[in-house]
Amino acid sequence: MSIKTSFDICVLPGDGIGVEVIAATVPLIERVAQGAPFGFRFHDHPAGAQHFRKSGDALPAATLEAARKADSILFGAMGWPEIRYPDGTEIAPQLDLRVELELYAGVRPARAIPGVRLPLADPRAKDIDLVVVRESTEGLFASRGKGVIDDDREARDTMVISRRGSERVHDFAFRLAQRRKLRGLPGRVTCVDKANVFVSMAFFRKIFDERARAFPEIEARHNYIDATALDLIRRPWEFDVLVTENMFGDILSDQTAALIGGMGMAPSADVGDHHGLFQPCHGSAPDIAGQGKANPTATILSAALMLDWLAERHANPALAAGARRIEQAVDAVFASGRILPYEFGGRDGTAAIAAAVASNL
Ligand code: ATP
Q: What is the distance between the alpha carbons of residues 360 and 330, in angstroms, rounded to a whole number?
């Protein structure tokens, strides 16, 4: 069988700074592919809040179909506070894509990049290198669009934890820890839950313990969500892979993004058995949209995650080498001390940061 070398990428820039960070990142991926034994074709497709305002459709069927057919999806950000569905909820096609494409593992790495000022004063913060794996198809988000309000008196949203949903996300977390262990990281998975209070969370933990037995070389730990919020401030450098329910992961991954400097530094991947979507952790950031101030680093690092995922999926190590080139170029930019994003009180915007990364590739 010949190795696949040409990849169709479905690009969904979306809203606000999503458009800006994607425009900064695509040329960098093209640059990595120059002279490499792989290539990309990028195809832009409409979706998001602004598209909803124009067309009444936040995620057109043709866009969903293109995402389904592509080798991978590169996503900016979607949503805009003033543009909402009639029931008042925000436009969030990313949530629909997770369900439609069964992107059950929300991968949110947080690695301290040398040269980036960290909010924790403890010098060990420079060793932060963890990944939050957020279950992304059920949990409390299963209630999205299904919550009920009785007579303006009582509201209910229901958490759903299934055996299938939990087994696959736990297995994903253990396999990720195996790969990280090969790179010298601890090889440890912490199940984050509230098993002391909720039957659904006790079930999530029970399935974690069952699956842990299939990965004897990986250390399996538990931590309650409240203790984890505390420990991520007290000693985040001790975590390796964390696996958790959808809502808990949503919250914890913003916290871990803050630990490494801010939203503009935090990449993410939403991965299933057949599809992968790569996007920065941040949203459309209306407060800075259109000003060229967005930090594109999170999106650039998400592109590296995309190359890694394609490398593994298609057994093509050249793509993994491309991912390392992107990460090393980003590290070199911040280690040089010459770039300070607006996000950190500096004067370097989207274009300047992308140009600095390009010059280090
Ligand atoms: P969502 O709910 O869609 O995730 P959010 O409400 O959490 O979005 P973000 O859009 O992520 O909000 O923005 C949160 C804050 O972080 C804003 O003040 C924004 O300006 C800042 N921010 C987010 N991303 C970046 C970035 N790439 N560069 C600079 N600042 C950013």
A: 8
